[in-house]
Amino acid sequence: MAEKVSNLRVFEDEAGKMNRSVLDEGGLVLSIPQFTLYGNTQKGRRPNFMEAAAPEQAKVYYRRFNELLAEQNVHVETGVFGADMDISLTNDGPVTLILDSPKSQGNG
């Protein structure tokens, strides 16, 4: 996933096409741990977090993801695992991407 994030061409080139990566742009990644994104809402009216990794394991995954990004020569800024964080974001553009890895599905 770190390789995908660092090389995903989501920034516009001179022709206005999404052909440039965070590496090409010399950008940085803000990596925020957010276990609630793994909530399943397919059944009922309350999110189910049963398939999310246990906090101890999730923290290991989160740290390793950030290490792998850094190994790809991406500058990484991180949030604090398990903290109640107030994050502001200005989304500049009409594109939202959701990245998922088949390798991780079903593994918590």
TrEMBL record:
GO terms for cellular component: cytoplasm. GO terms for molecular function: D-tyrosyl-tRNA(Tyr) deacylase activity. This is D-aminoacyl-tRNA deacylase. It comes from the Bacteria. Gene3D superfamilies: D-tyrosyl-tRNA(Tyr) deacylase. Belongs to the DTD family. It holds the Pfam family Tyr_Deacylase. It comes from Marinococcus halophilus. PANTHER family: D-AMINOACYL-TRNA DEACYLASE 1, D-TYROSYL-TRNA TYR DEACYLASE. InterPro entries: Daa-tRNA_deacyls_DTD, DTD-like_sf.
